[in-house]
Design brief:
alpha/beta; 6-stranded mixed sheet; two-stranded antiparallel sheet
Length: 191
């Protein structure tokens, strides 16, 4: 029976896990769970996170293995996790959110910590990330907000990581290195 099975499929470079919930028999239980789910969706992602931002940032950086470069935090909310993701001088962090009020609160927080410049906050105005291809080392998304995984993969560098919250768990996706690109860092190294 597929009703309680977990289905896993490999689509190019990422794994998708799907769980079908068991049917809810009482209509009032369905209504109550729907109201709770809608309330959770209405809250900003940062309000749904109860963990200390510094410890969550440390866990994210440890789990992803990213040791520097450009980090983009989608759904930056109040900016606390965004600021905490700048754990060292080797990181530049940009928080993006769809809500103008959240952007202003996050900017105020980052400025109060004297981090503005190394950490920046901007408003995301749609479903497209306004970056060139292959420029971001880590995308942290507590809320994708309609941004497609293909769009996230487009902006990630080879071996870059997308770390996306799905419910109470995080899904790590690594962009593969193309076969025609090696790891040598010097321009025209093979000429």
């Amino acid at each position: 029976s597929l009703s309680n099975a977990t289905l896993a499929t490999n689509q190019k470079d990422r794994t998708m896990i799907t769980r079908r919930p068991a049917p809810i028999r009482a209509s009032y239980a369905w209504a109550a769970s729907s109201a709770i789910a809608l309330a959770a969706l209405a809250m900003p992602a940062s309000a749904q996170t109860t963990q200390d931002p510094a410890s969550l940032a440390a866990e994210i950086l440890n789990a992803t293995g990213v040791e520097g470069g450009l980090i983009v935090h989608l759904g930056s909310g109040n900016g606390r996790l965004t600021a905490a993701l700048r754990a060292a001088d080797s990181y530049q962090v940009l928080g993006l959110d769809w809500d103008s009020a959240s952007v202003e609160k996050a900017r105020d927080y980052v400025k109060s910590r004297n981090m503005y410049g190394d950490v920046a906050i901007d408003r995301l105005d749609g479903q497209r990330l306004h970056y060139i291809d292959n420029v971001i080392n880590l995308v942290v998304a507590e809320n994708l907000g309609g941004v497609a995984m293909d769009e996230i993969m487009r902006v990630l560098v080879p071996n870059g990581v997308a770390y996306v919250r799905q419910g109470n768990t995080w899904q790590k996706t690594v962009k593969p290195r193309p076969k025609n690109i090696d790891e040598w860092t010097h321009y025209l190294h093979d000429s």
